[in-house]
Each structure stands twice: as structure tokens, then as C-alpha cells.
Amino acid sequence: MLFNSFTFLIFFLITFSIYYFPPLKKAQVLILVIASLIFYSWSQPYLLILLVLSILINSLTSYMITHDIQEREKLWIILGIILNLSILSLFKYGALLTHLVIDHFDATRPDEGLIYILLHLPLPIGISFYTFEGISLVIDVFTQKKNQRESKSYVSSNLPEHILNTSFFVAFFPHLIAGPILKAKHFYPQISTKEFKELPWAFVFRSLTVGYFLKVVIADNLKDYTFWIQYPYYQGLGTITNITLLFGYSMQIFADFAGYSLIAIGLAASLGYQLPDNFNFPYISRSISEFWRRWHISLSTWLRDYLYFSLGGNRKGNVRTYINLMIVMTLGGFWHGAAWSYAVWGAYHGIGLALERVFSFNKKPTESTDETTVKTPLWWQIIKDSFQVLIVFIFVSLGWLLFKLPRFDQALDFLHTLIKNIHIKPGLSHIVPTLIFSLPVIIYHLPHFPTFQTMKKEDWPKPLHQVWNLSQDVAVGLMLALILLNSGSSQDFIYFQF
Fold this sequence. Notes:
Blueprint: H1 6-19, H2 28-40, H3 48-67, H4 73-104, H5 114-119, H6 127-146, H7 159-171, H8 173-176, H9 184-187, H10 201-226, H11 239-270, H12 288-294, H13 297-308, H14 318-335, H15 340-361, H16 378-404, H17 408-420, H18 428-445, H19 450-453, H20 462-485
Helix pairs in contact: 1-2, 2-7, 3-4, 3-6, 3-7, 4-6, 10-11, 10-18, 10-20, 11-16, 11-17, 11-18, 13-14, 14-15, 15-16
């Protein structure tokens, strides 16, 4: 069930009405759990079994960490993590690993039996997201108990109630399919009765409007042009055309995923729950590390908190830090899909982060006094920031090529085509629409450009504040109109495949 479908609109209106119906106020969590299970099972009901299994595993292991009278919490957390990773590995990577074994032994692919089943396992939608949330639950509960803090906000003393709350945490439909990835310590304390009169309507309206605009107007229209990056179509296009289309794909993947996240945040807020921000204008980043503080924030913070820190972070010397970065980013890339191209994409970013740290972050700042410090002219700061932003954007966009062309030979052929087809004239029928639909993403980022952020808004004159506020209202109104008048053909969100 897509957020941008009429079916979902009806589903949400019915859920919303029942949820806030006064006589059913005490059953709000149960209502949302039932609605979420219906939402998830809408197109593939049999996959609901796996989601329920994941919920039960994480409910029971987290409950036993807190309530096992024999204090075997280490055993339970290990069991919880192993079971979560086993399910993820089997259904997401089982076919890939089976192919590797068959190719290694040069065996034939059978038409039946266990090997055939492994080769044709379905990929449950959202499994990467809800598995990571289950792991966060058992780790957070263990950490809380280890630090001898109260765990009532996490685990109820009543097992059925804890199973219900865990079902809500894992299956809550706004974030279930593609995040943001929730952490138990942030979500469980929010579980309570919600009042209709307390809803932040302005926030909900803006989040949903911007989210749907990014998805249905920008991403869904751009997909019709970035389609031509696929093999073999790009081979007949000129260098400038292909570069423009790759630029457009960077805009598309941002608009698609950030749009989903904003819709999820807005829907959750309309039901009284706060989801974490997942994007913070990533395309104005001046470094790769800053990009990862702004892009898919819930994943990058999960990897940092539960994996990078566990490996030692940057506390065990430079070489170990670089190794940790490579491990975390490669696994983070592999998390995106059961293909080596995703692991290479993660390693690509890991290498970038390590090199950035070698040549930049490890340099000791030079000492300076107030008398010797010279304020950088605004024009020079704009040039400097623009150059850094451009370099990072080019680095990131080249990486996205592995998302669009997962086969290495095709990705390399695309890069070769950029040199080989320099003589082919630019295709304006591809370039102009791509730039037009990419422009709103640029405008969306522009007010947050690093140089402009140094200018404190409180120092602005009052008329400028009024103009700024009015322009935001006008922009939201324009986006709403374009959603109604210029939506592209509906398509799954890109991150649904992960």
C-alpha cells in the first residue's frame, strides 16, 4: 500500500477516525497495531508471518533481559541479536550466498529442494528496517539494566502488554517500510493516550505537503528521464546529457527518500508520535562526514551507536579508526541490498571518510590570537563553501551510479561513455525537463547553504523576517497546487527495495 495511493488515503482516514473516537481512546495502541498489520499485509499477506515472528522474538528476549530471575541477560541479548541477524541474513542474503556456493563448485541449479527454495526466497519489504529496530530494542534494554536504571519505560512487567507495545514499536505503519529507523529509548516513552486537540496541525500539514511534493512532483517526474541512464540507453546519449541525467538521479533519490521520511513524520505526528528527522539538507554538505550527518540520519546514527562504537570508534588509534570506518560503511552499504555493488558503494564512502580524516581531520589547528585572526570576506567564503559542496556532491553522485547500475561492467561502461560520447550533441529533450524538476531541490537546499547559516536570523531587520515567513507560506501553497496539478505517474519508493 503506497503512501501516494488512493487506497492509502481511505485506509488512513478510517484509521484516524477510529483512533480518535472517544469511546476507544484506551485502545489506541491496539488500534494502530491492527491497522499496521493490515497495512503491511495488504499486498503480500504471507509475509506478515515473518513480521510477527520478529516481533515475538524481540518481545520475549527484551522481556527476559529485564525479568529473568537467574540474571542471564547476556545470554538473552546474544540470542536476540543472533536471531534477528539470522532472519535478515536468510531472507535478504540467502539467495546471494547460495549463488556464490553454486558458482564456486560449478554446480547446477536444481528445480526443487532446499537449494531451489534458498534461491527463490522472497525479500520481505522493510525487513532491514524492522530488524535493526529489534536489535536496538534488546541492546537498549540490556544497556539500561546494566547501568542499573529503571526499565519501566521500555519493558512492562506484564508480558502481553510488552508484546503489544513492541508490536507497536516495530510495526507502526508510517515508518514500517522505509524508516526512519526508530530506537527503543526514544519511542517507548512516547507510548500513551493521545488527544485530538493537542495535535500540531501546522507541522503535520507542512511535513505532508513537502513530503508529497518531493515524492510525487519531483521524484516521480524525474524517474521518466533518469530512466535513460539504464543500459543500453545511455550509450547513445552525449556526455553532457548523461552527466545531467546522473545529476537528476541524485535529485530524484533525495526527493524520493526524503519525501517518504517527511510523509512518515507527518503521519506519525498526526497520531501524536514524534519520529526522528532523517534528512537535514544533505546536498549542502562540505565534507563526506557531514553528508552522513545529514543523509539517512537514522541509519548513520544507528551504525555509529550500535556498531562503530562497539568496534572501538576512534578511541584505539588512527589505523584502527580507519579500519572501523571501512567495516561500518561496507556493512552499511551491504545493508542496502544483496548485491556486491552495494558493499562496494559502502566501501567507496568508507574510503572517502578515511582519506578525509587523514588529510583534514587529523591536522592540528594552528594557534591564533584575536589580533592575528582576519575575518574571511563574504565573497571568498561563498566561493570556498561552493567549491567544497560541489566536490562532495560530485563524490556522492558518482556513488549513486551503483544504485542505478548495480552491475559493475555497466557502471564502468557508463563512465567510459562520458569520455567516448563527448562529440554527441546535448539532448535538450532530456536535459531541460531534468533541470526543471531538479530546480526545486536546489531551492529547497539553498537557504541552508553554509555561508548563509553564518548570518544570524535574529540580526535580520523585521521586514526581512516578514518576507521570509510569507515566502515559506507561499512556497507551501505552490507545492500543494503542484501536487494536484503536476504529479508524475505513481511508483514505489526507491528505498522499499531495501
